[in-house]
Write a structure and sequence with these properties.
Structural class: alpha/beta
CATH topology of the largest domain: Rossmann fold
CATH architecture of the largest domain: 3-Layer(aba) Sandwich
Mean pLDDT: 91
Distance between the termini: 54 Å
Number of domains: 3
Strand order of the largest sheet: 1-12-11-10-13-14
Number of helices: 17
Shape: globular
CATH superfamily of the largest domain: Nitrogenase molybdenum iron protein domain
Largest sheet: 6 strands, parallel
């Protein structure tokens, strides 16, 4: 099918990669609970950690005191850390209390943290034991949200990968889409796929545990998020086959993602054009409004969300920006190769981080816009650089056609703000 522009001359897939293994500046994987608990309506995320873990989640989520969210923290006290108490017995007791008070819980995730991993608390064994005790009403799984040598989007990746082995088996030919999306975006995606005649379509994660998400040798899967490396591996081990494609950010990325799935399911070119023509026009028009601000500007990406390569492709190809450096915590060819094919040659491509060296490069480049984590934004602003918080790109609906303009506007906003401040200072 010819719906996607050909790769630019000299894409970045074969470009040399600067591999850095130094100090990193990222949030921990517990942050993923903030969007996952909203997505899975009958799940509960119980972090086994410290008061610091609890404060992080409460402040990041902005939960009011009278709200009843679908997450909490089982606090490890000093007696637990010192080995003076039986942490497993205490965890069993807390889980029993939680489930008795919240009978709506169907999936319980025991989420490991830095403290629980330091004291070698075996949450996998605990999940097996608690599943046997509370089955069939509740399924208990575990994954690590630890911030030791990880980045914050790995929390979702670890969570979804933990779900794959317990999915029901099926022999049916089905499409499985992996990656948590806001409900409104997910509904738009499902509408596009239905209009193309593609189905059945299953979701990981599903909104409820009893929805018919299954896996088998005839399952093909597409990833909606660029940071699902472990989920990709788990689905492949379970017998499913990946549909490689750029990710659905912007008009071009969305069209390429849908086109790859359409080709897999034999959708005709005419049908594809009929379904996508109008939303593609809307997306291009919406992006163009922000591109007036972005065109000709330079961008520098610190490694943070694992969305950096996809976003750099969007900004350079659709918004007219040029990237000086694109750094990402991990680069996996199976996931990011199609994006690197489209990313125009020129920027430094870096994997991992040595934050001091990268700061030196950013200050030498003096980009118009620097995309980075919260911890680096204020220091870089003090150095005169305009910044964009990478984490906002994960919390905001930015996928598919109808959000393409919003995605571009997120990058244009700090540049417009800087220009307004300059004009006000000049008056």
């Amino acid at each position: 099918m010819t719906h996607v522009p050909p790769p630019p001359q000299g894409g970045c897939r074969s470009a040399p990669v600067l591999k850095e293994r130094g100090q990193r500046e990222v949030f921990c994987g517990l942050t993923g609970i903030i969007w996952l608990h909203r997505k899975m309506q009958d799940a509960f995320f119980l972090v086994v950690g410290s008061r610091t873990c609890a404060h992080l989640l409460q402040s990041a989520a902005g939960v009011m005191i009278f709200a009843e969210p679908r997450f909490g923290t089982a606090i490890l006290e000093e007696t637990d850390l010192a080995g003076m108490a039986d942490a497993h017995a205490e965890l069993d007791r807390e889980v029993a209390r939680l489930l008795s008070r919240r009978p709506d819980i169907r999936q319980l995730f025991l989420v490991g943290s830095c403290p629980s991993e330091v004291i070698k608390l075996d949450l996998a064994k605990a999940a097996e034991r608690l599943t046997q005790e509370h089955a069939p009403h509740v399924r208990v799984l575990n994954y690590s949200g630890s911030g030791i040598e990880t980045t914050f989007t790995e929390g979702e990746d670890a969570c979804l990968a933990a779900m794959v082995p317990v999915l029901p088996r099926t022999e049916a030919r089905e499409l499985l889409v992996a990656g948590a999306l806001p409900d409104v975006v997910e509904d738009q995606m499902m509408g596009l796929l239905a209009d193309l005649g593609i189905g059945p379509v299953r979701l990981l994660p599903a909104r409820r545990v009893d929805e018919e998400t299954a896996i088998g040798p005839n399952t093909v899967f597409a990833l909606a998020q660029p940071f699902l490396g472990e989920t990709h591996a788990a689905l492949t081990r379970a017998g499913a086959r990946h549909i490689p494609a750029p990710f659905p950010f912007g008009e071009e990325g969305t069209t390429a993602w849908l086109s790859a799935i359409a080709a897999e399911f034999g959708v005709s070119k005419d049908r594809f054009e009929e379904v996508t023509a109008a939303p593609r026009v809307r997306a291009r028009k919406a992006v163009a409004a922000a591109a007036e601000t972005l065109s000709g500007k330079s961008a520098f990406f610190f490694p943070d969300s694992q969305m950096e390569i996809s976003l750099a492709r969007f900004l350079t190809r659709e918004c007219g920006m040029n990237a000086t450096e694109v750094a990402q915590p991990y680069i996996r060819d199976a996931l990011h190769g199609p994006e690197l094919d489209l990313l125009p040659a020129g920027p430094r491509i870096a994997e991992g981080q040595d934050v001091d060296r990268q700061l030196d490069r950013a200050l030498a480049d003096r980009p118009d816009l620097t995309i980075c984590g919260l911890g680096l934004a204020n220091p870089l602003e003090a150095e005169g650089l305009t910044t964009k918080w990478a984490i906002e790109l994960v919390f905001t609906p930015v996928h598919f056609y109808e959000q393409a303009g919003d995605l571009a506007a997120l990058f244009a906003r700090p540049l417009r703000r800087k220009e307004r401040l300059r004009l006000e200072a000049a008056e």
